[in-house]
What does this fold into?
Amino acid sequence: MQFNYEKNRILLTRIAAALFLFLFFTGGSYWETKSEFLAALLFFTGAILVAIASLGRMWCSLYIAGYKDDRLVKTGPYSLCRNPLYFFSMIGAVGVGCATETLTFPILLLVIFASYYGFVIRSEEARLRKQFGVEFEEYVKTVPSFFPRLTTFVEPESYMVKPIVFRNHMFSALWFIWAIGILEVFEAIKEIGILAPLWRLY
It folds into this structure.
C-alpha cells in the first residue's frame, strides 16, 4: 500500500512536535551558559521569524479558506509560489527552533521539514494536476513551486472571503506563536529547578 503523505501530514507533524517538546523539556541551551548575547539573539530571531510566519499563514488562509477543493487559487500569496502556506510554515518551524536558543533545533527542524514536505508537495500537486488539468499546467509554467518570485505577484482589487472558514483557519495560522508560549512555560519550569536539563544542546 502506498503511503499517503497528504492524509498523514497532520499526524506526522504532531509526532515531530511531541519529539521536539520532549527534547527541549529534557535538554538545555549550551549558549545560555556560554554566551547570553547569542542566546538572546537566537530568541529574538526566532520571534521575528514566527511573526512573519503567522502573518504569512493568515494571508494564505484569507485566499484559500473555503476554496481549496473548489478552484485553483492563483492570486495573492499563491501568485508568488504554489505552496506559500508551506513556505511560511518552514519559516515558522525555523523560528520556533531559534526560540529554543540553540542552533541544533532550527537545523534539525529544517532538515525534517525539507525531507518530509517535499513528498507532501509532490503528492498534492499530482492531485491538483489531475483535478485542474491544463489550468494547473499553465500555473506551473509561470509560478515557482516553493520559493517566492516577486515578479509574478498578482493581487485582485477585491476578493470574496468566507468569514466562518477563515476564522477557523486563523487559529491554526497562529500555532507557531502558541509554540513559543509553550517553550517559555517549559523554560520557566526548568529555571525554578523543578527539572534540571539532562544534557546541553548547541
